[in-house]
Amino acid sequence: MAGTGADVAITGLGLVTPAGIGVPSNWQRVTSGVSCATTDPALSGLPVDFDCRVPGFDAEELLGGFASWQLERFVQLAIVAARQAIEDAGLDPSSWDGTRVGIVLGNSLGGTATFEEQYRTLREEGPGKVSPLMVTRYMPNMVAGYVAIDCGARGPSLVTATACASGTTAIGTARALLRAGECDIVLAGGSESALTPTAMAGLTKMGALSRHRENPESACRPFDAERDGFVAAEGAGVLVLERVADARARGAAVRAVVRGYGAASDAHHPTAPRPDGQGIEQALRTALADAGVAADEVDHVNAHGTATPMNDVIEGQMLRRMLGNRPAVTSTKGVTGHTLAAAGAIEAAYAVLAVQNGLVPPTVNLKNQDPAIDLDVVTGEARRMPVEVAVSTSLGFGGHNAVLVLTAS
């Protein structure tokens, strides 16, 4: 099929996050501004022993016994989110043309729990005791592979790995597949579950995590003068994307339109963003130009806002420079924690819900806004306001930057 260059609609959302399983519970928790962070017994003895896990996730109940023992948790989360998104979009995998359905999901760390467990088995019991499932449970690409198997999607299937920008990169890639005419439907998003002792120890040693262990609920403080790092989290977000014309032709409700996408590299440092913010600025400029949206038309920004000292000030000053003080800015990581590769997809879904509901979630734990960040950051309670144009920004280790512009249908 020839490329169409058509607008791309979001017709379905699926969310499995620390804020809940399903879109309604997520939206209620995020707009109420109640943090999900808590002490984690699995991290006992570590310098940082708290995180944000998905509550009440029973893989056997949600997916069945086979999937509960064969699949790694990051895959389980993604399958549940994908099923939600498909149902929300009013689609039936038993009747669609699977050759025209694609899967693009972000992941960074793969099955870290399996790797740690099987390495212990190797050391303690020898190579003969290593599981034959070790490789397929660990490989990051299996999240796309298993979601494709689950729903019968036989079009392009791939994983994007741009660290904490992966979910946003996935949505941008999915949009390109649709606009090129290579697919008619794409499930796009991200999933991550890497709250293991080794991964958490590594993040702690590099100085990325908050050390406020005395009160985990208030540890993640985006844009606050006393921020000291993020709270690690797990989760999955999946969006169903279709060309707007196709969605309307089948009578589907269009939640929002992916109007623009931009990506750029810092080419600066493996973990630190460019001090001048030029990488994320370039991505935002590209996304706005792609969308045909002026800077003064942006109503809301769901910022990357990790609560790390460098990220927040660099991103915040870039947003002020590019968009002025007009948009209502929030970071939902204060509630959910940082879901790493899934963050961009989850936050894009929250931005869609802000557009649909005319409601911007608050940035929790922001008590004393850093004077170097001169933005209209929503605090205290959710803000009721019209949101016609929303921006979602993502930055990732390796200097990856990605930005989405979302508009009302």
Taken as a percent bin, the fraction of beta residues is 15-25%
Total number of β-strand segments? 16
Major beta sheet summary = 12 strands, mixed
SSE order: EEHEEHHHEHHHEHEHEHEHEHEHHEEEEE
> Class of the largest domain, according to the CATH hierarchy?
Alpha Beta
Question: What is the SS-derived class?
Answer: alpha/beta
Number of domains: 2
Show unreliable segments: none
Helix content: 25-40%
The CATH superfamily label of the largest domain reads Thiolase/Chalcone synthase
Gyration radius from CA atoms, angstroms = 20 Å
Distance separating the two termini: 25 Å
Shape: globular
Could you list some keywords that capture this structure?
409 residues; alpha/beta; Peroxisomal Thiolase, Chain A, domain 1; twelve-stranded mixed β-sheet; two-stranded antiparallel sheet; 14 helices
Q: How would you sum up this structure, described in words?
A:
- The chain is of the alpha/beta class.
- It folds into two domains: 8-249, Thiolase/Chalcone synthase (Peroxisomal Thiolase, Chain A, domain 1); 261-407, Thiolase/Chalcone synthase (Peroxisomal Thiolase, Chain A, domain 1).
- The chain is built from 14 helices and 16 strands.
- It has helices spanning 23-32, 59-63, 65-70, 73-88, 112-125, 134-138, 142-151, 166-179, 197-205, 244-249, 278-291, 309-323, 333-336, 343-357, and strands spanning 8-17, 20-21, 38-39, 50-51, 101-106, 157-160, 185-192, 235-243, 256-265, 300-302, 328-330, 359-360, 376-377, 383-384, 389-396, 400-407.
- Strands 1, 2, 5, 6, 7, 8, 9, 10, 11, 13, 15 and 16 form a twelve-stranded mixed sheet that branches. A two-stranded antiparallel sheet has the order 3-4.
- Strand 10, helix 12 and strand 11 (328-330) form a beta-alpha-beta unit.
- It is globular.
